[in-house]
Write a structure and sequence with these properties.
By secondary structure, the protein is an alpha/beta fold. It has 11 helices and 15 strands. A hairpin with a 4-residue loop joins strand 8 and strand 9.
């Protein structure tokens, strides 16, 4: 693709690309059958996708009659950057169209307390990881950061621990500095996109420098009408508890972080389990996924203690067991999901 070209945005093209993503090859007849499009429409769209360099032949396969030509996605035809702005750590990775990570740089987030300096720091890291990408193939940048924020405008609100971010036009400032489309969402919402999305509902709980959650309800990411859903860490669990960075007392996040600072990993895990049990009771989710640096430092402890709290606090045998697992994408879950903010629409996935 040339510098001015972008992948096709038509719905039918996105459907076909979505079918090819993650597969070694499909024939035109299979694409027509699975998409519901006519063979003629598939042929026209495939021709355009091949001309754009997004689809290529993957060989021929004989089924007893005339050999059919298999088609595949060309992963290196485009890339997306995923950025995780944590309170103290910055991760920038590059993913190809197949979602495979092809480069990553990470380290201390030096400008976290000075939002006006964030675009320059992100640009420097992005320049490192995307230096070898041909002109025009970097499609955009997805950013996951602590909330609350408005994902439509990319403007953070009163982020606990980062009061300077309140009202800062993060998305607009990054887009101006990078010269690329930018999408911004809460870190927990981004991390959800890095995980497999089976049918049903799930909660992703992230414990790192803060505590939050991403919600998938009936197969769709749920942000809430004011994009405030998932403020898991700010449920009050102790009325006379310590002051939280959000200004309230007894928040689950404040208690968990205090336990971790004291070296009480088991206590922190049990507190997370109490919060998870509350969410399971409230929303009747099918599964729980745990992620974040604190969880990944002791995954067995967190899985065991969270599962135990859910079982203890929801003893009704009529409830189906709720499995508790660790995020498949590991410590880069937020950055990988942030890249998916850019890539998903290309394949017909709403975010």
């Amino acid at each position: 693709m040339s510098t001015s070209e972008r992948p096709p945005r038509g719905h039918n093209a996105a459907v076909l690309l979505g079918l090819l993503r993650g597969r070694d090859g499909l024939g035109r007849a299979e694409l027509a059958e699975r998409s519901g499009l006519t063979p003629q429409a598939v042929s026209k769209i495939v021709a355009r996708l091949r001309a754009d360099g997004l689809v290529a032949e993957a060989g021929r396969e004989s089924t007893g009659g005339k050999p059919r030509t298999l088609l595949r996605l060309v992963p290196e035809a485009g890339y997306a950057a995923g950025v995780h702005l944590d309170r103290d750590w910055l991760t920038v990775l590059l993913a190809d169209l197949a979602g495979r990570q092809v480069g990553c740089v990470e380290g201390p987030f030096r400008s976290a307390g000075e939002p006006g300096a964030v675009p320059a720091e992100v640009a420097a890291r992005l320049g490192e990881v995307a230096a070898a990408v041909p002109a025009g193939r970097l499609l955009g940048v997805g950013v996951g950061c602590p909330g609350p924020l408005d994902h439509r405008t990319g403007v953070p609100h009163r982020v606990p621990g980062l009061p300077q971010w309140d009202g800062y036009p993060l998305r607009a400032a990054l887009a101006e500095r990078l010269g690329l489309p930018v999408l911004v969402d809460k870190d927990t919402n981004a991390a959800v996109l890095a995980e497999p999305q089976p049918a049903g509902s799930s909660v992703y709980v992230h414990l790192g420098s803060g505590l939050g959650a991403g919600l998938v309800l009936d197969g769709a990411l749920y942000r809430g009408p004011r994009t405030n859903a998932g403020e898991f860490g700010h449920q009050t669990v102790r009325l006379d508890g310590p002051r939280c960075a959000c200004g309230n007392r007894g928040c689950l996040e404040a208690l968990c972080l205090a336990a971790l600072r004291a070296g009480d990993t088991v206590g922190a895990a049990r507190l997370v389990g109490v919060g998870v049990a509350n969410v399971v009771r409230l929303l009747d989710v099918d599964r729980v996924v745990l992620g974040g640096r604190a969880v990944l430092a002791a995954p067995e402890v967190f899985v065991r203690e969270v599962a135990a709290q859910v079982a203890e606090r929801i003893p009704d045998p009529g409830w189906r067991p709720v499995p508790v697992t660790v995020a498949r994408a590991g410590r880069r879950a937020v950055a990988a999901g942030a890249a998916e903010l850019v890539l998903a629409p290309l394949f017909g996935r709403g975010v």
